[in-house]
Description:
Elements: H1 2-8, H2 13-25, H3 33-46, H4 63-90, H5 93-101, H6 103-119, H7 121-127, H8 133-143, H9 148-177, H10 181-203, H11 207-210
Helix pairs in contact: 1-3, 2-3, 2-4, 3-4, 3-9, 3-10, 4-8, 4-9, 6-7, 6-8, 7-9, 9-10
Amino acid sequence: MLEHVGSLTNTPWIYALIGLSVVLDVFVPVLPSGVLVVTAATAAAGTTADVVGAARAQADSVFPEMLGLVLCAATASVLGDLAAFRLAWRGSDRLDRAIARSRRLTAAQEKLGTALVKGGGPLVVVARFAPAGRSVVSLSAGAAHRRPTEFLPWSAVAGLAWAAYSVSLGYFGGHWLGASWLSTGISVLALFAAGAGAVYVVKRPGGEESAQPAPGSAS
């Protein structure tokens, strides 16, 4: 996978692939969109490191690619959130049945739903890192008929924070260790660790009360 992604890092196709994966991830939480973003950043940053991981003088030239990956992933995240939000707002028996068939999404709703409703905007951002947390937030906000002006700002903050973190993991892994499976694996583990931490923060005892709802926050 690393070799295939690496061959795409200097082409527009990598942005199309990431954008499509991130958009669809809100409907199919099992898609490895985060892993793809990390892998792309690792492959791009790794081209500026030698075999011992020392940065070359041209390392700064990778910055536009990193920025492009962040903006692509963040924009796709918001677009996917908005699509799920609008579908849930309008209501759909087919959508309800699809959610019911997804054990992962149903479990996430049961575990995160109450906490997100009480936690407000800040927990929406944290939940973006949790497995299926993005889906729960977007669908719950739409089903509750929250105003778009309440939902979209938090969606944008959450998407940008998640994209910047994912790309940073790939960048530093590739920058220090080169474009290797080791650097990718370490970065992906750090991404999963953030997800586990996000679940803990959302579910921890008293977490709902400790996070005060922000004005106009999406639940």
